Amino acid sequence: MVNVKFLARFRDITGKRSVSIEHNGSISDLMNTLTEKYGNEFKDALFDKKGNLRDYMKIIVNGEDVESNGGLESNVENNDEVVIFQTIAGG
Fold this sequence. Notes:
Blueprint: E1 2-6, H1 9-14, E2 18-21, E3 25-26, H2 27-38, H3 40-46, E4 57-61, E5 64-65, E6 75-76, E7 81-86
Parallel strand pairs: 1-7
Antiparallel strand pairs: 1-2, 3-6, 4-5, 4-7
Helix pairs in contact: 2-3
């Protein structure tokens, strides 16, 4: 099982703090599974119209940003922890 934690906006969209999902595969596949489960609002918050991860989104696997470790095609396995959140910018 992969433990997925939702922070901020994603907690509001899903209505959950976390969910455990049976998954062995890429981050991209996991995001597609979550999109199917939580719908268009989840998808629109995560991806732009071209299907790319939005610039202000972060996906962390076992404490490491996926963007610095293989991107969306990096794999997640049983017992991995995935955290999804939107970064906050201020001025």
